[in-house]
# Entry
Amino acid sequence: MSEGNGNNPGGVTSMAHSPVPDENLGKSDRMAKLKIFRGDAEGGEEVDYEIPLIEGMVVLDAVLAIQAEQAPDLAVRWNCKAAHCGSCSAEINGRPKLLCKSRVEEYDGAEIHVGPMRAFPVIKDLVSDVSWNYEVSKGITPFTTSEQAPFTMYEEDVERLYEPKRCIECFMCQDVCHVLRTHHKHAQFAGPRFFVRNQWLEMHPMDEADRLPDLKEDNGIGYCNITKCCTEVCPEHIHITDNAIIPLKERLVDRYYDPIAKLLGLFSAKSK
Amino acid sequence: MVELQRDGQNGGREAYETREHDVLIIGAGGAGLRAAVAAAEHGLSVGIVTKSLLGKAHTVMAEGGIAAAVGNVDADDSWRQHFIDTMRSGKFLNNWQMVETFTKEAPERVYELEQWGALFNRTPQGKISQRPFGGHTYRRLCHVGDRTGLELIRTMQEKVLATDAEVYMETTITKLFKKEGRVVGALAYTRENGKFVHFKARAVIMATGGWGRIFKVTSNSWEGTGDGVVLGYDAGAELVDMEMMQFHPTGMVWPPGVRGLLVTEGVRGEGGLLRNSEGARYMENYDAEKMELSTRDVVARANYTEVQEGRGSEHGGVYLDITHLGYDGIMKKLPTMYEQFLKLADIDISREPMEVFPTVHYTMGGIKIHPETAASSVPGLYAAGEVAGGLHGANRLGGNSLSDLLVFGRRAGEGASAYIEESVHSAEIDESEVLTEIGRVLEPLEKKEEGESPYLIQQQLQEVMMEHANLMRDGDSLKEGLGKILALKDRLPQISVPGSRLFNPGWHTAQDVRYLVQISEIIIRTALERKERRGAQWRLDYDGPDEELGKINFIVTKDGQGEIGIERREIPPMPEHLASLVEEAKAKA
# Structure
């Protein structure tokens, strides 16, 4: 093997990681000003914070800097900081946002109000109790097949599944959905996230389960009146309304409300 | 008396809940979830504890793919070739029995994911597609775009939700309990409200991932604080290869807030080129044969060297160029990378190159496990995934971690189940142990006077590790670093945090820094012992690999005085059928 080992050429030392000294990285003379909700289930209020603005800074960077230097008990949920995991969902100026993907500069001049997602109970500061979503997920019939992997499936059979599979479960579509946020139909309505999950399950070429009865009853898809709020906030750019909710609604219509299909339905249990 | 304790505020003592499971799994990444499925299939009661929400574990950050010799694209691939590639990359420090098990079982685990609903990109023949990756002889990484980890964890998450396993989200373990030499449970607190839970369990599976957070520039999330390896060490488990930290060659460098964020090796897998400020494809000076697809240790050192020798980019990195794929190609193969650079760095990677630099990514070392059962050296304690050591030796191949999670996650679940089925031991412990631990965990909150900030200690520790235990190391600097770490250790008892127990990150960080300091000390001490250049351990004060050191692993255990004990342990010789594979490969090279 001809593996070069990068042996120790002249200038290499163990001492420095990056030639740009940390203290000079992206410094500016401007300040980032945030109004962050501090409180819990009982209530709370916005508190003003200021920290030096660093070039390219996202709101999560600012919140974590405030946490480390000014407010050690400031609660925020985050993990990957790269918009892959969907943990740091909160609201900026009343709109659901991933804090790790929202640049401070985007709000140039405007006030930045940061608060928790409001369609769920507030735990503390920027953290809401999203456990209800996991309960809904548990109720959905999982992938079911009698076929044995490895499957033979072609790109054209599956390419429409890649979109719903991108979902990172940030639950911002749930947060913005007025059926949940305004009308509190959590008990009767699964929410956009779970229509997206139903979509790929129902469209997977090998899946054999029938989820339409659940979609109609337990998941209450009928409550959705396709205002597309969910699609607008999706950080993965999933066309939730057009590609998940509407096709599922159409299947329900075909199954339950179309007189010819209803007649045929007497002979076939599931139309895929 | 027990009743009173559990009921509440009696005599000023702490209330806590008790939960009982046959198997307690700590960590809900790919390994923990796969272990849970295995144990649940045995009809056992399973509890899974995770510091985050379900589905957010670091597995989700794996991008490039899952390595398994299914041979869909290159029919000549085999477990044998995967074995050779893995051993070579690990510089033969790997536990060869683990590597054999791993390479043989990886294909089965991939197909099992597909059986459970995971979706991979397809070949024209309708099979799972595979892409090339550094150090893999054949195109071997089953993938879906650049979000394979998301597909894996979501599939496992939905599989687990369909079992009776109970998931305790946003819950942190602080100590393992032992009785008569066996691990029989753990103490936890809930992050939401700081309530304590005593988990009684007849076996515990550690699946907590790595400890990249000991470095400032890392691809790891806040969770990567190495809880599991220290919990295991404190319980008496042997650790192996702790000096081996993987620096991923390509992390983001600009803007400052994203420094260290991962740029998938999939970029190089899809033909991405590395260039320095002079426009030269410098990899030809480091590995002319494999070029950009050399192993991670080699590419990371090359990138580091180019920058240090003055051929770096504007912000102190090197250039990684994928523009030849064009917008459409990138959106098909690397859509996440496109979005990441556009949103966070204002870079359109279909038009201009990325700036990248090595970032701390993975920990090859960890709890030493039995290659068949994933049992640690302590009865009742099992480990799988990144927290376990031995599979990857001195350098992990990209794509091998996702298959590691599934192969050894399943084996840990099976191993723990078999152990429980063979034994009738009880998980009862003396209650004073629970109360003592609760008292210890509460200390930082109960200090009246202002003490040390856990955030500041964490930050200082990260700076020490960056400066003294980076991807190029030397003895004097390591010793200086050790002194600084020990000084930080002395400050730990003075940590205090304001606020209540309600979702208080300051308090949570106070728990984490104890692990970070302990692990850093172990890494520096073992790095001082390995006086050579091998894989990820690169000592500038030694010229090359040392033949004798190539025959041993450093094993760490907590000694009788509570100090770090380091043992040189010989690697047993390979059996004939594996040794001959290696010989044949050498002859061909």
